[in-house]
Amino acid sequence: MSETPKNPSPADLDRMSDEELVRLGTELDEVDVKFREARWPEGVETRAEKRAARTVTIWFALSALFGLAFAAVYIFWPWEHKGEGEAGHALYTAYTPLLGLTIGLSILFLGFGAVQFTKKFVPEEISVQTRHDGPSSDVDRRTIVAELNDSWKSSTLGRRKVMGGFLGASVGLIGLSAILPLGGMIKNPWKRGPMTVAGDGTLHTTGWTLASDTRPDGLPPEKVYLGRDTAKVFPDGHPPAGQGRLERIHIDDLSTGALESVFPLPASAIGNFTEDMHSIHGTRNAVMLIRFRPEDAARVIKRKGQENFNYGDLYAFSKICTHLGCPTSLYEQQTHRFLCPCHQSQFDALEYAKPVFGPAARALPQLPIAVDNEGYLVANGDFIEPVGPAFWERRS
Ligand code: FES
User: Fold this and answer.
1) Main site of residence (predicted)?
2) Which of 11, 54, 272, 340 counts the highest number of beta carbons within 10 A?
3) Where are the domains of the chain?
4) Which residue did the predictor score with more confidence, 85 or 328?
5) Count of alpha carbons within 13 Å of 330, Cβ hemisphere only?
6) What kind and span of H or E run contains 347?
7) What three-state secondary structure class fits 378?
8) Averaged over 105-127, what is the pLDDT?
9) What pTM, to 2 d.p., does this model score?
């Protein structure tokens, strides 16, 4: 082997073999290799080496398998909420644990494989390097590439195609697992599902749409009460049959000046805990019911076309901010303003909840309300416009 020049010219560098470049690199980096020994003799593959390769391959294969299982569970497992007693409840409750189990095992087996691979195939080496500052020179860059090539070759991973393939698959699938959950955010906003207490899945409906006489599913309107969330909890998590979480609100229940969040409670679903939870979780369902003081009620300015949406001094406005959809749940009684905590939009409750400050540009939609013959508050139809932020098909 020729002597390694200390200050090689570009022509010298072109002439040098990878081995010479590696040696040059270590010398220039002031790396002192104290000890280096390959794990296995070169040229022959012993039975022990084959056994070691098989073990590492199995770890990587298991990692890839569980990575694949994670993707399959994420895509195909029935994840839609099923309440206690509903068909499919057991499968639904297994969804999250299965995601954790599969991705956890995939990462664990990748770790086992990596540790085993390092112990069994990467040459044993002890080197000492003196640290120094400064940018890398051309020589450094060329030599580091040569060193990396040398590591790749000496690790034998290049010629172990199956092991390398499974390692690549494992790393790729684990990387995929970081991206896959974003898939849950991709939704077809036009896809219409069955009309439920949470709407039909499009941006135009809410649970209150059940009270509309022009329901998108063509069915007749239902009687939908304004439901108060009692936040009832049951000791073992199982509500007794016939017990719900939402309760109807009587016209006398709300004191003057009070505000309360309410949710759609269809008459057919009273006492159904699961339906109540679907209603509370309906992303566009929450409504603020407010009873103005008589002196304030006298100053209310109604929006054109919504003159009969209130019932006396009771008014109901969507709680979903028309800027980006946060809950506008703060009410300042002295100024009669609803405040959205996200970007500080303010809406004037005495003037059909029109925006008076902040980035929101549209009023909070008003829900028409009435009182039934028992004195309970009900929706007198649906909102006449979509609730929440603007979207491409909105005209108002
Ligand atoms: S979401 Fe309400 S102000 Fe931005």
Assistant:
1) membrane
2) 340
3) 10-185, 207-379
4) 328
5) 11
6) strand 346-348
7) strand
8) 93
9) 0.59
Mutate to test the pocket of ligand 1, among 321, 330, 338 (most ligand atoms within 8 A of CB): 321
Give the Cα separation of 234 and 223 in Å (integer): 27
- Which secondary-structure segment (H or E) carries 203? none
Residue 296, classed as helix, strand or coil, is: helix
Atom 4, ligand 1: which residue's CA is nearest?
343
- Is the CB of residue 323 below 6 angstroms from any atom belonging to ligand 1? yes
pLDDT for position 371: 97
360 lines ligand 1 (CB under 6 A): yes
Least confident of 22-26, 83-87, 133-137, 223-227: 133-137
**pLDDT tens-digit map of 237-272:** 677 778 889 999 999 999 998 999 999 999 999 999
Q: What spatial distance separates the first Cα and last Cα of the chain, rounded to whole Å?
A: 82
Domain spanning 207-379, CATH class:
mainly beta
Bridge partners (DSSP) listed for residue 332: 337
Strand 224-229 versus strand 259-266 pairing type: antiparallel
The CA 339 to ligand 1 mean position distance, Å, reads 9
- Minimum-distance ligand 1 atom for the alpha carbon of 389: 1
203-212 tens-digit pLDDT: 999 999 999 9
**Which pair of structure tokens corresponds to residue 96?**
């999250």
Distance 206 CA to ligand 1 centre (A): 20
**What DSSP assignment string belongs to 112-158?**
HHHHHHHHHHSPEEEEEE----SPPPHHHHHHHHHHHHHHHHHTTTT
290's tokens: 């407010």
Nearest to 109 by CA among 152, 66, 146: 66
Distance CA 276, CA 263 (A): 9
**Average pLDDT, integer, range 93-117:** 94
365: number of Cβ within 10 Å: 27
Alpha helix segments (H runs only) across the chain: 10-15, 18-28, 47-76, 89-121, 138-154, 161-179, 273-281, 294-297
C-beta atoms surrounding 310 within 10 Å: 22
Bridge partners (DSSP) listed for residue 31 = 129
- For residue 7, pLDDT beyond 90: no
